[in-house]
Amino acid sequence: MEIRHLNADASIEEVLEIIDQDAGVIIDNVLSQNQLDKISEELNPYLVNTKEGQDDFTGFNTRRVGALMARSSECRVLALDPKINEVSKRFLEPHSDGYQLHFTSAIDIAPGESEQILHRDRGVWGGYIPRKIETQLSTVWAITDFTKENGATQVVPGSHKWDRNREPLEGEICFAEMKKGSVFIYTGSVIHGGGANNSDENRLGVFLHYAPTWLRQEENQYLSCPPHIAKDLTPELRALMGYSKGGYVLGFYSDPEDKNGELESVSPEKMFGDFKDKYGFINSADKLVSDSSERK
User: Are 143 and 40 in contact, with CB atoms under 8 Å apart?
Assistant: First the structure.
């Protein structure tokens, strides 16, 4: 079995159909060379100053750089990609009022790296969530070519439907080989892992993962991209990162500067002066107050 590829103009329905069957699909040739050059330029200063991993899972010849929303303007564009966001919405929202950016990382696998331990990403939550609820949709954007020789991601298509303890046979493991500018989409339930790099070139990918709004994010977006940086981002990106309510009261904050007790159930969007009542929860009938002037 191989990982299936789709053209950049493939429909959302085509993408979701293959994800349902295989738990992974590649969309070819999405990014331009100009975008790839810009991403490499923005990430390189951080990659060259980052230490390699220190264990078998993170790799001894692999560099990982997070906080991409704070560090790379072009990675912000990838995070808001319309097709990826529509796929994430359709895939995750059957069990959630919304979805959020869960994890960002640039992963650079250097020559000599060994295979990563095969795993399911949903394990970050301890495996307590029923498997019938999908908890993650992930993307890997190929900034360089991904080949079997240089460490393309190992994937076991269809393993999202397996019993928990079933181990893959060697012939069931595929490789997410793709040209630079392509994107690999996969679920949190599929077995996968970084490949071994037996070439003389580095393999660089940008990993952007999405999850329901009611789950703890793997990467703490509020510290990786704190308010003094987030204030300069678009409201749409801030909302995706979690600077918004994920439901009726999920994610509200109390204003620490409010000494008179005038504010309650404040949406994080209010922090930046561009409050939008995304879910329509605040209206005169509800008596929920987001502006102190309404209390006077």
Answer: yes
| Residue 85 DSSP class | H
- Summarised one tens digit per residue, pLDDT across range 98-137 is 999 999 999 999 999 999 999 999 999 987 778 889 999 9
**φ, ψ at 86 (rounded to 5°):** -70, -40
Distance from C-alpha of 89 to C-alpha of 99, rounded to nearest angstrom: 7
Task: Give the helix ranges, DSSP H, for the chain.
Answer: 12-22, 33-47, 68-71, 73-79, 82-92, 221-224, 227-230, 235-241
d(CA 125, CA 129): 8
CATH number for the segment(s) 5-223:
2.60.120.620
Token pair listed for 8:
């950049």
The residues pairing with 146 across neighbouring beta strands, listed in sequence order, are 178
Residue 1: name the closest of 145, 149, 159, 117 by CA.
Answer: 159
| pTM value > 0.85 | yes
**Using CA atoms, how far apart are residues 125 and 91, in angstroms rounded to an integer?**
19
Give me the DSSP letters along 176-244: --B-TT-EEEEETTS-EEPPPB-SSS-EEEEEEEEEETTS--SS-HHHHS-HHHHTTS-HHHHHHHT-S
Residue 151: how many other CB atoms lie within 10 Å: 33
CATH 2.60.120.620 in the chain: give the residue spans. 5-223
Stated length of the chain: 296
Please tell me the distance from the alpha carbon of residue 74 to that of residue 286, in angstroms, as a whole number.
40
